[in-house]
Amino acid sequence: MIRVIAICLLMVFLSACNSNPLTPTNGLVKKAVTLQVEQTQQQLSQQLDLNVKSFEIKHLAISEQKYQIIQTLPAYHIRGTYDLTLKLPKRQLNQAKKPFDVYMQLQKEGKTWRLLQSEKVSGELEPIWRSYLIQ
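The chain above was modelled as a monomer; its predicted structure follows.
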């Protein structure tokens, strides 16, 4: 009986610590969102012939974080908002509370995270996932 109580107490104390290194930090999520915005800005700049000098992401807030398995590896689907400042040649454009929706995956060795982007292929039931190293 004493063993059962000791084990239960130990489990409560360990779960209270909750410092799971496998969960992405806010800083890591910000890097993933930055990577996603960079890709989008490059595409838009080419299509619209815009000259975006740089951009800045501030006030990133996570509203939802769901654990899942994608292609046999742990991943997180993360949603939230951020403030974006685009620096153009003659002015600066600010956009508040822009929504983000990213998928992040921890690699097998547990040392690196990757940004995942799904691509629907016609005729396929499952999406194809492209991954990009988050640095």
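The radius of gyration is 20 Å.
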